Every structure is written in C-alpha cells, then in structure tokens.
Amino acid sequence: MVKVGIIGLGTVGEAVVKNLEKNREIIKARAGKEIKVIKGVIREPNKYTHLNIPLSTDYKDVTRNPEIDIVVELIGGVDKAFEIVSDALKHKKAVVTANKALLAYHRFELQKLASTPFEYEASVAGGIPVIKALRDGLSANHILEIKGIINGTCNYILSEMKKGRDYKEVLKEAQEKGYAEADPTFDVGGFDAAHKLLILASIAYNIDAKPEDILIEGIENINLTDIEFAKEFGYEIKLLGIAKKRDSEIELRVHPTLIKQQEMISKVEGVMNAVSVIGDVVGETMYYGPGAGGDATASAVISDIVEIARGNSNPMLGFKIPLEIEKCTLIKPDNIVSKYYLRIAVKDELGVLEKIAHILAQNNISIESFLQKPRDGYVKLLFSTHKAVEKDIKKAIKTIEKLNFVIKPINYIRIEE
Amino acid sequence: MVKVGIIGLGTVGEAVVKNLEKNREIIKARAGKEIKVIKGVIREPNKYTHLNIPLSTDYKDVTRNPEIDIVVELIGGVDKAFEIVSDALKHKKAVVTANKALLAYHRFELQKLASTPFEYEASVAGGIPVIKALRDGLSANHILEIKGIINGTCNYILSEMKKGRDYKEVLKEAQEKGYAEADPTFDVGGFDAAHKLLILASIAYNIDAKPEDILIEGIENINLTDIEFAKEFGYEIKLLGIAKKRDSEIELRVHPTLIKQQEMISKVEGVMNAVSVIGDVVGETMYYGPGAGGDATASAVISDIVEIARGNSNPMLGFKIPLEIEKCTLIKPDNIVSKYYLRIAVKDELGVLEKIAHILAQNNISIESFLQKPRDGYVKLLFSTHKAVEKDIKKAIKTIEKLNFVIKPINYIRIEE
Predict the structure, then answer these.
(1) ipTM of the predicted structure?
(2) Does domain B333-416 have CATH number 3.40.50.720?
(3) B183 class by beta-carbon count within 10 Å (0-12 exposed, 13-18 middle, 19+ buried)
C-alpha cells in the first residue's frame, strides 16, 4: 500500500480525495498497489469534517510522518509551499505538487534537494498530461519549439471577443462565471502563463529562468480593430507561451500572438488549453484539454501518485544526467526576433504613410502587408512586418509616437508563423 | 549501457538507428544511460551496408544474444513477428515493437508471455505518445470514450474531398504521393484503424477482441452528396475508431462518422492523426500529431527504449493487477446505438416520403432532420435520425431498398455527438 498525505484541501485537494475514493479499484489495478490518503492538512480545523480522513493543522504531521510515502502539496503560493516541499524532500518523502508558482521560482533548488521522486503534472495545463509527454513521450527529440495556450481565462476572453464583444464586457462576464479572479491581472497580464512556460522550458532545455527574466505581455490592449485585422488576414489572436531554440540560445516569451488559422493550436476555443511541441525527430505534436478545474487537476495529481506507486523513475527537469555539450542560455527580451503587427492611429493628413514607412525602414523593419481603415475623424493604419528584432520595433514605435499626427499609443502584436 | 538489437531495417528501422545516433547525447542524458544498437537483422544481407552496425539474417542472433537487453521488432506482419517477439520474451529480453497487426491479433498472448518490459508506443498514431497518455497520464480515470483519427490515408482523402474532389481522383493522387498503397484496401477499408483501435481499447478496458469481432467500415462509399450534406448541417466526415463504455459493455467500431464542426477532432486535416479520450475525472483530452513516417515513428520507438532504460514499469495492457469488479464484454455490432445519416435516391413520385417515413417509424427510427435535393431525373432524400439500434437501421434499409421507386443502394453514415 502507498500512503499519501495531502497538504491543502481546497477545490483540488478535495477532488483528489474524492476521485481516489471513487476510482479506488481501477487506480489500484493500474498502479499495482492500493493508494490511501491517511492524513490531510488544513488551515481551519472545522471546515473539512465531511472528508473522511484524519486532519491536522500542522504540515509536519505529514512531511515528517514516518508512515507517509507521498506528500501532495496543494496550498499554492510560493514561500510557505517552498518551506513545506523542502521539508518533505529533506525527510525523503516523494512529492507531488500542482503548484506552478512554487516551481516558477524554486524548481532548480527543489531538483537539487530531491533524492526521491518529484512529480508536478498538474502544474501546467491542468488535466492534460503534457509534462509526461515532454519528459517521456518525446524523449528522442531535441525540442525546437513549444507554443502553449496555457491560460484558459485569456483564451476565453479572446474567443468571446471574436464575436465582436468588448474586452471589458467579456472580462466582467468571465469574473461572474468564475473563469477570472476579482483582480484578473495574474491571468490577463500573462503571469500565470509565464509560470507554466518556465516549467515546460526547464523540461525541454534544463534552463533556469525566473518570471522576471522573460518577456511577459498580457491581453489588456487587444481591441476589436485587432480582431478585425486578424480575420482579414487569416489569423487568430491567442495568448501564447512560447519557447524556441535558436542554436544553443532559448527564447522565452508570453504575449498575445497572431497565428494562422490553419495552425491546429489556433483552433482551440474557450477555456480549453493546448500545448504544441515541435521536436526535431517527430515534428509537431499537440496536447489539448481542460487547463483548470478541481477534477481535471485532480486527474493529473493522481496520475503522478500512480507513477510513483509504480516505481517509475524520470528526471524531474531536463535531464537525468547532465548534458555537457549543450548548455542553453536565455535570449534577452530585446533580442527576440519575430514578425509584428502594428496598429497606428493617425490624423488624416498628407504624407503620413510615407513618414511612417521611412522610420520603419530606418530601423530595419520591412512591411509585409498593409491595411488602412478610416474611422470617425481619424485613420487606422495596420501593418504586418517581416521578421524584425524586438529592440528595433520598440525604437521605431517610440520614434513614430513622437510624430505630431500620430494618436498615441501605438499597439503591436507579435506574429508567429 | 543499454544494448539494443533491431529486427527489420526498413524505413522505420533505419530512422531509429539514424536518430539514436544523431541525438545520442540528449537521449543518453534523458535516459540516464547510453543506448547502443549492437546488431541489426535483415532479409537481404547486401542492402544495408551503409548502416554502421553489425548485421545478421538470423533473428536469433538478436533474440538469443546474451549481450542484448532490448529487442526492437520492426518487420511488420503477424506470424513471423509473433514468432520473433515470442522468442525474445522467452529469452527474457525487453521488447519494443511498432507492429499494430501483431498486437491486434496476439497482444493478450504476448502479455501473458512477458515477464520483461514490453512497449509499443509506435503501434498507434505514429509519433503521438497516446499509449503513454492512456497508460500513465490518464491513470486516474475510467475511460468513457475514445475517438481516433488513426489512419492518415483516409483523413487525407476525406480532407481533399471537402474541396469538391472525387474519391477516385483523390485516392489516385494519394497513391502517387505515397500516402496510399497500390492496394489501398487495408487503409481505406478501415482495417488499419481497427488494429490500432483494438490496442487502445485493451489499454483502457483490458478487453480481448480480434478485428473480426468488431464493426469495420471504410470510406469507399462516401460521395460528394454526403460531403455537401455534412457542410449543410455543420458536420465534418472523418473515419473514426471509436471505443465506448456503456456500463460494463464496450462498443468498438471503425467507420466514417459525421462529427460536429465544433468538436476539436473534426478540425484535424490532411494526413495528421488525433485521438480524443474522455475520462470520467478529467473530461476530454486530445492528442494530435503525425501518424506515420519513418522519423515520427522512430521518435515513438526510441521513447520506448528510453522508458525501458530508465527502468520504468507500466502494465502492458489494461491493468497491472487484475481488476476483479469490472469485467468488460464486447457489444455485438448489431446492438450498437448511434444516430444515423441516410442517403436515399428515389424516382420523383407521389407518396415516396410518406412510405419511407412509415418504414423508419415501424423500425423505431425517428427522423431528426431532412433535406431533399433534386438531381437530373431523380431525387436525393437525406435524413438524419435520432439514436437508433444498428440492427433496426439495417432492417429498415433492407425494407426501403425493396420499394420499387428506390434506386439502390442506400448509403448511411453514423453520426457521433
């Protein structure tokens, strides 16, 4: 029998207990062993008496409990969770966590500390077994690229905006439906997706980066003009987490992205998640499913427990043994190379286009397509560019914004092809 | 070091050798051990001298070689492969195979024989790690349903027919492009997909069925009228392998299927494969990627070798230990329940619709939607039905075909919703 202690009995914790019980027989058959939750740790002692497991308010009753084999951490957040997981690993417990924030900041310290199995399938894309796909299913491949729709809130909002609905209206509805928090910044600002991207990138490239090191932009500035442009040129707008390998350098970035409608990942609608991975041997594979919710997340947590019960042994992050030949470094956000879409509102004057085109050319930016939309009293100029360097685009935008016929601010979206 | 012998050095075998060499460092880092091919077995001794490995024409030089840890079987076909894999297992070798036909017929005998690891990721959906997803990623779930686009040839032909192109014309082109064999029956008749479906179903349900036991229909009778109907009612036509659980009974079937355009799996175009799995805990997840090709298949074969090198231990088919409470039985093809689309060509006479509707009602079939298309000299009646039983539909069709105003044969497509 494998004995489990769960720290944190919120939506996910409860769902783990419930589904371990509900599917007890089949999980035992698949794992080869019975799996039993013998202790839960909670903050408020009176709240969880409906769960039929012994409870405690002290995490050490789990992390230092000689009877317990696997510690499941489900409290979320960074500091306290780090304390708990570190304590569990020091006491030679196997650990399962769903905590993306913990891993975004401390995954390399935890990897160092872990002499026992450490699993975290639920930390990225909820119920989709994408961690296992990357670590096990694609182990023959150099990973060339990862593109993920890994924040359901953003994908829901962008999907609804395609119907012609306004950002603020949709956000409000998402909050009412429980898809978005009262303070939505963590989701719509791209930070949640960044945490998950860092985890995926560490598996693929063994690269140590913090959220602060990478480019993160949210969907707050997307408006209906952008949606209209996207339609006109055959794109969808998605918030993507992107990891790309260029020689031994890695690009990591989270931002709204224009992707061609033929791409499978552009067809993912609503709150669903998907991660597309390009490997040098297999080509593109994609993993699709629910990225959040108690049951979906519990499915991933339990699959980790089963893996540990089976005695399976996988590297926690990139490699089981150090890869000497290939030490990847992070590309600075300013040096990212992408195609761009620019939305520039200008007063309807003579010579406007010429001046803007001149500044773009001066900054090594060449135009791929151009659309001009008249509006009440002003004109919208919509450009897409060929590949350009991030810092050149930023400099060009700054220069153009100084022109007196330009109505600030200029908005831009990166294009992925 | 893990020592590998490969039996069969065709497209996939060569790609395995090539990619193990090309990605040697990263595979070693991920596996925790070096992986080396020390022997290849071929039929014609002079054909493969460009591969830098010792060759033999006797498979026993691999299956009974005391130096070899893992035997990789890539010759395809049933009888000879069964002999080879059995011999390897009897000599306590771990086995990796990409051979779906072998597994469709002998997977339960091989499971019984296997006291060593037995992996077969490449046997279903090429490079997509869907076997691992089912066995490991979704281990917390009762699998309620599997729907797979698991034959690229059929999906390519159906995708092209959507552009208004004729079946025969597209098939010819597919043959020229190498997507379809000179005798295409195995692909377009649904048999290849059936082999793969049986493998997936054994993992999900531990159910022992042979291709002969299940309903298999190909895409040969799909025509442009059906494509037109599908468009009109918001469907795509896909050849699906379907496994469904109804209490402790399992439906297994392969046939062209009308699926709603909103379903993610209906958006899979061209030669690509995808498998959608519905679990009782996680809901729907889907796995997408290349279903064939030397490199894609090699990616899966190598990932299996890595799993074995890591010492991971997973049940070969359904369960590591027998699941006493749940013994699944196969539903007979005649008792399958589905919605149906019927295409009936009739002479333009009075009372035709009434007579057909009467026969449908007599057989417990109720009409959901109806479309009438005039053609030169005759009329096409297109029905979709509510859920009905397979044998009732067959009986109704037989009865309707006897009416003298009906131009035979009547065609039907099952609808999945």
Answers:
(1) 0.96
(2) no
(3) exposed
